Amino acid sequence: MQAIDWIVVLLYLLASLGIGLWLSRKASNSLEDFFVSGRSLPWWLSGTSMAATTFSIDTPLYVAGVVATRGIVGNWEWWSFAVAHLIMVYVFARLWRRSEVVTDAELTELRYGGKMAATLRAVKAFLLAVPTNCIGIGYAMLAMVKVVDALNLWQSVGVEPADNLKVFSVVGVSLFVLIYTGFSGLWGVVATDFIQFFLALFGAIVVAWFAIAEVGGIPELLTQVQAIGTQDTLAFLPIQWNNGPQWSDAAGITAGTFGAYVLLQWWSFRRSDGGGEFIQRLLAAKSEAEAEKAAWWFNILHYGIRTWPWILVALAAMVLYPDLGDRELGYPKLMLDFLPPAVLGLVVASLIAAFMSTVSTSINWGASYLTNDLYRRFLSPNASQSELVWVGRGMSLLVTVLGAIAAFFTEDIATVFRLVIAIGTGPGAVLILRWFWWRVNAATELAAMIAGSLIGFVTSVVPLLKIDDFGLRLLVTTGLSALIWGATLLLTPPESDETLDRFYTKVRPGGPGWSRQRQRTAIAPAQSLKLDLQRVVASLFVLFGSMFAIGGFLLLKGLTGFVALAIAVLAFQWLRYLTRLAHTKP
């Protein structure tokens, strides 16, 4: 890092702070202004913010480690969530926007009633705001520490820091984020997210460009990858064709784990009906239509555009650093070794941007639970809007401090990523069913959430109970959780008709599970669940067809590229037909 690099980074930080403080006036009037931007976000800003949130500084490091150890197919660990994210587009986006809640925890007292619903809301708000959220902040900080270490940022200014000083420097950046997040609320988060996303994407493309040039171009890159790895390192699916389809043991992923990714993880995980940060953006959208478009825009940015710069960088790191002990450090090492001055500063700023976008969202999102679902609901129901805004700012500080503490206890990004998935697995089926089946009650959701968290934790951490195979671990967690919440469902009474009528009238979900409420209220559903599910299937072929077409052409797999492109085009025509049909329905 030269002086010009530090100037670039400093200018970026000052610009982010200025934007956040300038927008503080938009977030000072009410709780809804502070946490859901007064429900006035346009789709392009909301969707980009969702994508920026998932593009943390840990993400390119994580992908570099995954590709080096498990090949390209290892990315199915996060690609599989595209199923849930596309279901979010057509099934859940409009439902969430119609609910008009501030957080997903608040929905529990719209969907359920009585003391059990209040208990569920409190427990859910605490678990999501504190342990789950702070673990996420902690491993984002860990990634930032790794980048600080790999780029020798302290050494470039003549300091040899201890490990704790590196962590404290990252905590300092987080406190900087807190300044504008605490004053501007979600408005400041999404506005800076917009800049941060495209800066972070540009940084990933720049690193890929210089790294591939150093190797000698993509043809040479692919040749050397195959020489040091296997042909299966470049495979998009862990399947070989030898007189018929066969499992590829050389792909770096077991059949059980792959099966868990594509058949289980996306619906069993706690984000099956959207996910907290995404739900916050959907609730903040101007309208139902804007919420749906925002969800689609997120999928395009997250899967279609961002995937391949990360993978190309990971492949280049494999070639240029074949003996690198920590594969997650391939990304920052490429930056340090091959980027010229000023460009290095810009790309370092892009990684800081990725870090800041995730941390700012986590701060605001976590504070929304503590303020809306704990303080306002249980401690001060009659609090003024001004008081709630200031409480939100105080809770933002608390979340930042707790996340910083978690940073001192995290060591490996991929391991923590899998732990987050494991402890969040189990309640997903209940979260889906509650929208479409009247019989699901508050006790069922509470049992599913607690059981999944405990089982996921003990099978990931406790030595005697730890399950090393990740796919088997998810299967056990899902199965045992289902037994517990299924028994709870059978042994506890349903919600009252008054509670169910209130929810149905507000949200108007489709499907056969609300026939009684349709008869009682004489209100037709506002969605055709059958058509929406068909649109999900069509959109999956569009998204993965487009993604594999881009990857096929980039990695010189012409046949794969053209076949995937043809699938995407045909699926897009099917999707257009289904969408026109859906819009003609009353």
Describe this protein's structure.
With 586 residues, the protein is mostly helical. Helices cover 74% and strands 1% of the residues. The chain contains 25 helices and 2 strands. The protein has helices at 3-22, 31-36, 43-54, 58-70, 76-79, 82-99, 108-111, 114-150, 163-215, 218-228, 255-268, 276-284, 288-305, 307-320, 330-338, 343-379, 385-407, 413-424, 428-436, 442-461, 470-491, 497-507, 515-521, 529-554, 558-584, and strands at 239-241, 245-247. Strands 1-2 form a two-stranded antiparallel ribbon.
Structure annotation, total helices = 25
Strand order of the largest sheet: 1-2
* Cα Rg: 24 Å
Topology order in helix (H) and strand (E) letters: HHHHHHHHHHEEHHHHHHHHHHHHHHH
Q: Helix amount, in percent? A: over 70%
The secondary structure category is mainly alpha
Q: Overall pLDDT, averaged?
A: 85
**Secondary structure: number of strands:** 2
Describe the oligomeric state of these chains in a short phrase.
single chain
Strand content: under 5%
Largest sheet: 2 strands, antiparallel
Residue runs with pLDDT of under 50 for 5 or more positions: none
